[in-house]
Amino acid sequence: MTKSRRLQDLLTPRLLQVLGLLVLLALAAILLRLPAVMAIDNKILDLEFKISREYSPQKIAIDPIVVGIDEAFLDAVDEPLSLNHRHLANFLRAMNQAGAKVVGMDLSLPEKRFDTLISTRKDALDFHKILLTGLLESIQTTPVVAAKIWDLKHAHYRDIQVDYAAVLGMQGEQFQPVASAEFCRDSDQRIRRFPGRDCQPDRSERGLATEIAAAAGVRQDWNGLINYRLGERFKYIPLQDILKLVEQDKTAELQQGFAGKIVLLGATMDATDLVDLPVSLAAWLPANDPNPGVLAHAQLLRSILNQRLLQQAGMPGLLALCALFALFWLGRSIRIKLLVFAVATLDLFVASSIAMQYDFWLPPTAIFLTGLLALSSSSAWQAWQHYIDKQRLSKAFSGRVSPAVMLEIVEGRIDQTSQSRRLHVCVLFSDIRSFTTLCEHAQAEDVVSLLNRYFAVMSKIVHEHGGTIDKFIGDGMMAFFGAPKQLDNPAQNAFHAASAMLFALDALNLEFAAEGKPVLQIGVGLHAGDAVIGQVGSAERHEYTAIGDTVNTAARIEGLCKDVGYPVVCSESVLASLAEADTLIALGDKNLKGRSAIAVWGWQPVSVAAEI
Fold first, then answer.
1. pTM above 0.70, yes or no
2. Could you give the angle at the alpha carbon of 527 between the alpha carbons of 524 and 530, nearest 5°?
3. Helix axes 334-357, 315-326, angle to 10 degrees
4. DSSP state, 594?
5. Residue 265 and residue 243: Cα distance in Å, rounded?
6. How far apart are CA 354 and CA 106, in angstroms?
7. Which residue, 570, 432, 557, 407, is CA-closest to 497?
8. What is the pLDDT of residues 55-92, one digit of tens each?
């Protein structure tokens, strides 16, 4: 027994099913961690965010206010941004007077003092003292959280001047007053995930939005995805508008707008601190433009303050769903599995969208790909098995039936249950003249060898012309044209096959003569008409054959060949379909054994001897 045979015996269908499922589960575990799959899931998530914001916007109870430092502010002040101590101090005092709940600053406080800097005016401005005083006044009633910026070049957070850090540190231990402004970015550099300590440059640091929420009394061990479905697009309040209210001493208006609110100050300029987000949050910018980083912090604050971070399905749940889709490996009907897979895929994406409404993210790509792999591998395996079965069947029946019949059997169109059909065919009978006399003086082995060579040539000709060999009867052969392969003109094909047989016999006889063997002469009878074609016999032994008067008549016509002296004799039903009808010779009516006389025609090629 060969190794492949032993392996085939070991791999039973049940064992193959189990092994296939295990392989699919292993592939699913790989797919769930594959960066390319995660990237596709991220794109799907972004699409669901956009659709949800478009058709099902989510209202929220707590919304931070964004105060923006824009180009108009920079144009309105004399100092560069790094020296805006006075304006920043005035903003902090304004928020304190307005009763803001928390002030978060998405900007880094100065790294050093500017005591010796003299302005163009006559008096020297103590920039450091102004800002320090503003911080001290603000933290009395309004907590302040400042950003800590990571210096990528030097691989550390930028320092904050020690006095500022000391004042901010006076706010207690409820929150971290200087927090990291860094975000987690996916492979496409978009911001989707909560910036926990695991993705901070320094694992001991917490994120800015986390500490602003903690300063507002909301502390939790956060994790998940930023919920970009929440709230409308942000509109910011320009910093210069707030400073004007301070100058005009409009405390009531400040309190009306900011009392009890969480305020986030940051840059809203067109070319400063821009980030890529799944959706556009800036109401003042085109939809596809990058957004100011302060809006990413603001959206994260929305998610935290409203307790609505997206929670992603865990690995066990995803593997369970992958295992469910891996079941498409089982079953035999590909059509049914395709239909069920289409429905299951639709349900998967609908379920993902519904889960989003409950702040739950179900990434579908790995699950879908597992099902697709299961379905395609099952289809491929079945196709391979079908191919192997065809090869085995072809090998088993090769030489026993004609190629056309073999094709019908392999394709499953012929079996013992197939119904017989009445078809219009042309039947061909051929016989070797005086074969009994030839056999008297030859060994049986030589006779069989000669017949095999003869039938090999004649069979090939019949098949080349679309015919089906029904049987070999001693030195005779029966074939029919028009079934199972349908032909436009069965009689024409049969006549061409008969003429080709005669020409081939000439060449074969030259070989026989050179070998000292007797030359052969044949007669061919043709008749066209209806016959019943199909399987005849029992379940244990049957054959594909033609039955009817057309068959009997063709056999009787072949018997006339020797008497009329023509190697090919056909009936009128054949003649009527031949393009070469004018080359045939009318032989008149001839009596046939067992039936009435019919008109026949004879044909003989020039190269074939007239003596039959």
1. no
2. 145
3. 160
4. T
5. 13
6. 35
7. 570
8. 888 999 999 999 999 999 888 877 666 667 888 999 99
